[in-house]
């Protein structure tokens, strides 16, 4: 019964996002932009929550996977977009959608592969050490992209320009819905028990025969995949990307969303992603005091509700030992 | 959800230009906080001064001008969002900004699509105005600045120059590339090419490698923060040749950090506040009385961008996008603070650069290099 409900919710979300997307030309550009930012941040936060919240690993390199996805997908649309469109029978909404879908998947898969490469050795580390490795990976990706040749495929410090603006309401929110559904389904499955075992007590889990490394890598790869999709959506929304936009602070932004929302609580993390993105816009009136107000709010939140906005367990009826 | 969408749809108002009070609204995107805040606050001061003067003189088309400034926190992604906000919420008739090329590149396509003319005061990267025919700038471009310093080095008889690039900055990479092209084509030799990233503090390894090539000068095209440190560390290593740079050096911090080490080095710039022409001296005096400091090139360029826009609105007689765009494109021999400005068919300002040197801790004028 419950299973059917979540299928239905996914289909409904896809239908609604398609519906809104069709009349998005009627929406105010600025509001649409904020909504798309919200959607992308939701994807990032939910995917990081799988690693940081459900599996209890502390990754500080989410922006790096986003960067891999952004560059990967942009290179597909920039370098091969034209020829793909030709094969698909000339420019049109269908050809565009197929090209974009392929680009997004290429971005997501490259991010997942990177996640696997980084995860295999480093997920044997725990706690702070993993945080340092992922932080290091974040910097490596950024610095490598920055130091590539300006005329090369990555554009060096200049980054990539003129990326087609394919990202629409449908793409962002369909991806967000799929991310939420997939991760939600995963957490409530056998795999989910594995993730939780790793988080709650790694040694106990291991002695019960759970391959903790495998679960950690799995969570990391899936998290990276969705971060890569978010990166692809971001690139095709902004139409220009540069390595500087995927720095350590971008990773921290996502970590803040996860912690503020409540580690391991999907609903809480979504709420936090929405609130923080919208808050950023509302605080514009404070101009240069914005970042101070923003930080103060975070400090107050952490004092008043250290467990996050909507901590895990509020919505999930999970048996606790 | 549906109700929310309906509500937002209802918010979309048709028509642009002017608000309830009947003012002409001009948008400005500047980095008031974050990494390049000094540039943002300077350009914001220049723009504000231009708007204040326009209003004092009776406004435009019988209306007052209202400036709406949005901060982009020196962040990628933010510039695009605030540009959309200014266009769709504040209904600006034209956009001024950004200083940084990376963020102007982000705003360009948005303004182009909305049909709102955009004038960047100081984005020198060549690609900025390629976004479309609604994007202009009032400064010269990187190729020109790199070429100017190449010309200058050749004219001084320097045959061997080493290059130090800040690979984190589009600006530095672009400048170095065009310097290299011109310099090598005209008989110069590049003796070494070293790179660093903004925020680095130690440049001794790069400088030691450069020293081995025995150059006549070093082209250090990065921004002032690192250049100051580079200068003092070069002198510590016994490198006595002058450093060369671009307008990214233009900040009092350069001399504060480098002290006497930067004496005798040269850089290209948009204007010199030492210029004795009465127009510039009057501007410097007015700026000083309002802000209590001498204006830098960013302030002067932002002031010019505001004035060129005002001039175009007057000539167009309307604030309608297309007509305003055509009027801006037709700007010819505009007598600005940063020189006589003519916008060419690529929407770049065609004007000369000045070369400055650092003498007794002050930037002093050396010569003007024509395009």
Largest interface: A-B, 36 and 39 residues
Percent in strands of chain B: 15-25%
The ordered string of helix (H) and strand (E) elements of chain A is: HHHHHHHHHHHH
Structural class of chain B: alpha/beta
* Rg estimate of chain B, integer Å: 21 Å
How far apart the termini of chain A lie comes to 25 Å
Mean pLDDT of chain B: 88
Low-confidence stretches of chain A: 317-321
Tally of distinct domains of chain B: 2
Provide the CATH superfamily of the largest domain in chain B. Answer: Response regulator
Task: Give the CATH topology of the largest domain in chain B.
Answer: Rossmann fold
Count of runs of 4 or more consecutive helical residues of chain A: 12
In N-to-C order, the SSE pattern of chain B is HEHEHEHEEHEHEHEHEHEHHHEEEEE
Main sheet of chain B: which strands, in order across?
A: 7-6-8-9-10-14-15
* Parts with pLDDT < 50 across at least 5 consecutive residues of chain B: 1-19
Q: Note the beta-strand portion of chain A.
A: under 5%
Into which percent range does the helicity of residues of chain B fall? 40-55%
Overall pLDDT metric of chain A: 87
Helical percent range of chain A?
Answer: over 70%
Topology:
The complex is a heterodimer of chains A (321) and B (371).
Chain A: H1 2-22, H2 29-54, H3 62-87, H4 93-122, H5 128-146, H6 169-187, H7 190-200, H8 202-207, H9 212-238, H10 248-261, H11 266-282, H12 290-304
Chain B: H1 2-11, E1 24-30, H2 37-56, E2 65-71, H3 78-88, E3 94-96, H4 101-114, E4 118-120, E5 135-137, H5 142-155, E6 160-166, H6 170-185, E7 189-196, H7 204-212, E8 217-220, H8 224-236, E9 243-245, H9 252-258, E10 266-269, H10 278-291, H11 297-316, H12 321-329, E11 334-336, E12 339-343, E13 349-350, E14 353-359, E15 362-369
Parallel strand pairs in B: 1-2, 1-3, 3-4, 4-5, 6-7, 6-8, 8-9, 9-10
Antiparallel strand pairs in B: 10-14, 11-12, 12-13, 14-15
